[in-house]
Design brief:
Length: 402
């Protein structure tokens, strides 16, 4: 089998997505997600100018060799742009291999380890009442696990709170919009939010919260302790994790489970966090961490230290990533939970998918491959339009983590 063509499809059905299609001489093709929110065109160039030219003519069945060729051959290793481009190729090749074997991808990984895949979605509101209403709605949709984000009194625009009735989409302007942040107002208010949610919904519901990198370690330790009575499933991205050892201090003070890693792109970003058990869930996902080939290594390493997977799955990760992730979730022994944010109606028409949602859980489907495809003609209807993630400042103007 030979790769005879590979092309990048950029489309903006409600938000930008980058999709890679690899075509073989036997008529089988594979699809990979190459979307990196706010940096889409950088990944397009990396694929078109550097990686696709070295793919043509190769045997697509040699997934590992192609992975090593691109990772080691790049010289400039790691980083979100390169590892997202590599991930798209990797997922497309796994899709081809599973189609050639005429089996759903999870079978190729080792078969299913569970009957269904627990998923969580977002509930958010500008104030407590609208947040509680959003939790009610997510619960009525069948979710057993819900991420709760609430507007903070005194902060104009809080992370994770959608505009109007749309799903939360952070890339909200051509060039970065600026947000203002107060850690004090946030830390004083969030425990009240979870007290109110637990009061109305009891202890059954899995509750998650995304701090989104906003705190220092001791502030995160304080929040973790304050949230302990509300038994969160996890507190996510408490602090920026370039310095992985920062989580040691958080861990010493609280039993609130910790999740991190959606911005990681390699095992080296999380090795210390995992081997010291400073976290409970690793969020690095297939589209940004080098594809199935690399994320499998991360998951197997995490299993040695009782760390479970909790893949990122926001609206800026395409159905292609979701499809591949669900096959991985079906197989991986140390599965934790899968994030899922619904996509726009236009997306539904462009991407066909085999995965199904029922009663708070997903199943990936039995279609050979990862079960997701793209309608290239329809995708052309939605041309790319630059959209940037916001920038965040403290109230005194200090540039802060968004
Ligand atoms: C968030 C994301 O879903 C999450 O956990 O952290 O919404 C994140 O803000 C976006 O993916 C950034 O593009
Ligand atoms: Mg997050």
């Amino acid at each position: 089998m030979k790769i005879i063509d590979a092309r990048v499809i950029v489309s903006c059905p409600g938000r930008n997505f980058v999709t890679l299609k690899i075509v073989t001489d036997q008529g089988i093709y594979g699809i990979g997600d190459a979307t990196l929110n706010g940096r889409e065109k950088a990944v397009v160039s990396y694929l078109e100018d550097y990686l696709i030219p070295v793919l043509i003519g190769r045997d697509p069945q040699r997934i590992e060799d192609i992975w090593q060729y691109i990772y080691r051959g790049a010289y400039w290793r790691r980083g979100p742009i390169g590892m997202t481009a590599l991930a798209a190729i990797d997922v497309a090749l796994w899709d081809i291999k599973a189609k050639a074997a005429n089996m759903p991808l999870y079978q190729l990984l080792g078969g299913r380890s569970r009957d269904r895949i627990l998923s969580y979605t977002h509930a958010n509101g500008r104030d407590l009442d609208s947040t509680l209403e959003a939790v009610r709605k997510a619960k009525e949709q069948g979710y057993k696990a819900i991420r709760v984000q609430c507007g903070i009194p005194g902060i104009a625009k809080t992370y994770g709170v959608a505009k109007g009735d749309h799903n939360y989409e952070p890339a909200d302007a051509d060039l970065p919009s600026e947000e203002s942040w107060s850690t004090e107002k946030y830390l004083n208010y969030i425990p009240e939010v979870f007290a109110a949610v637990r009061k109305e919904f009891g202890s059954e519901l899995h509750l998650l919260h995304d701090v989104h990198h906003r705190l220092t370690p001791i502030e995160a330790a304080r929040l973790g302790k304050d949230l302990e009575p509300f038994r969160l499933f996890w507190m996510e991205d408490a602090v920026p994790a370039e310095n992985q050892e920062a989580f040691k201090l958080i861990r010493q003070h609280t039993t609130t489970p910790l999740a991190v890693g959606e911005v990681f792109n390699s095992i080296h970003d999380c090795r210390e966090l995992i081997q010291n058990q400073w976290i409970d869930y690793i969020r690095s996902t297939i589209v940004h961490a080098g594809g199935i080939t690399h994320v499998r290594r991360i998951a197997d390493f995490a299993a040695l230290y009782h760390v479970r997977t909790g893949f990122h799955g926001a609206t800026d990760l395409s159905p292609v990533c979701m499809g591949a992730a669900l096959h991985f979730d079906y197989w991986v022994p140390n599965f934790g939970i899968q994030e899922h944010m619904p996509h726009s109606p236009q997306m539904e028409e462009i991407f066909t998918r085999a995965y199904r949602f029922e009663d708070g859980h997903f199943t990936p489907g039995e279609t050979p491959g990862h079960g997701v495809d793209i309608n290239e003609e329809l995708a052309k209807k939605y041309p790319y339009k630059r959209a940037s993630l916001p920038v965040n400042r403290l109230e005194d103007g200090t540039l802060w983590h968004w």
